[in-house]
Design goal:
The complex is a heterodimer of chains A (231) and B (196).
Chain A: H1 2-18, E1 22-36, E2 41-55, E3 62-79, E4 83-94, E5 97-111, E6 116-127, E7 134-146, E8 156-170, E9 173-189, E10 192-203, E11 211-224
Parallel strand pairs in A: 1-11
Antiparallel strand pairs in A: 1-2, 2-3, 3-4, 4-5, 5-6, 6-7, 7-8, 8-9, 9-10, 10-11
Chain B: H1 3-25, E1 31-35, H2 42-51, E2 58-64, E3 67-76, E4 79-86, E5 91-98, H3 105-118, E6 121-132, H4 135-144, E7 152-163, E8 166-174, E9 180-185, H5 192-195
Chain lengths: 231, 196
Amino acid sequence: MKNIFFIFFVILSYCTIQAQSEFSSGLLPGIRVSAKISDQFKWINSIQSRQIFIDNTKEKSLDYEYILTDISSLFSIKVGAHGIFNIGYLIRLQDGTAIHRSIQQYNLVQDFERLRIGHRFATDQTFNIAIPPQYRLRYKISLEKPLAGNKVDPKEFYLKLGNEYLGIYQSNEVTLEIRVLPFIGYEINHKNKIELGIDYRLSDFLDSGSENDMWLSINWFYAISMRSKSK
Amino acid sequence: MCPYCCKIRYYITLIGIILTTNIYGQTKFEREYRIKVENVPQEAKDFTDLCFLNQKIKWYAEESHEGNTIEAKTLYHKHKYSIEFTTSGDIQDVEKEIKFGNLNPEHKSKIMYTLEKLFSKYKIIKTQIQWKADNDVLISLIKEGHTNKQYSLHYEIVLKGKKEKGYRIYEVLCTPNGEMIKILEIVQRNSDNMQF
């Protein structure tokens, strides 16, 4: 456990050092509820909000500010032994308006001896009356390592590391964003998981001034389903 | 109490109810975790010392609805071994991981015949030899690979197989004659946290 906190501290320090230009930080709490409809289909709903505590672009850089809430609903289809296709919709409530986003994802989650690796290939399209449409192409790799035994069991902690690359197209401009997501998770039981970690986002780094966002993220995953045998 | 405090108390109670309902609603409980060698029964340690002298052994405790066991895992002569014991140190079985292609050709063809009947397509992921016998017989099997004494031999195969509902992961336990004893679909752990 000490090692985990050490890793967290190192990443935190690194992020802070990197924050030379635009930097914001805050809270990113979220709840995700998945309901198993059948062996092949699931319905996944989530709510996530964003609250800022630090923003160096503002005069009063240390201040609490509520930013937005995302509400999403996805239909999930199991494809083969390891694949999952998700299609759905997200509504972002920000500054009194609603921003709409359609989402398509293909996930590949593979179990190994003492490791679980997930790949996510995704696209999304964001629409709002006030801003030009935005199109994103995303790839994320996640690695889950149990901290006791060979697999994550109830009442056990695990380490989850994620790395995501986003290509963003908007108003004839292409930008790149990179995300690093170190998390520590706890499986309460087969249906409930809680994860706490950092969601660090680096964008506009090809230009002179990069944009750094570092969120303290806490996620609760709740599954309304039963499993017959765990691997 | 102020309305704000009431609201917080309401949400805490609601989350508590959901979590508690879940814990008691489970039908199966499985847990595996590392244990220190000091917590392993002496009989189990004696057995592994005889078989795998100077080999690094990892010890695990397993809790399930079927009972509690202790498992030793090690690598010996380039093969992964797992030895299951009762909590008092009595041996239950020995499993040795091998390549499916290296199975006894007669056993292999009989197992393949069974698998072809079960699945329209399949791909072997993992093959394990499972031995059950007296301790001295198991020691001979581990150290020399053969024995003249009686023992029970089964094959535990994990595979990706295609049936009418598409590809799934299965665990098949069969005899050397290809007779299927048990088939289990391995339902993967919930992967929502790996997707989002």
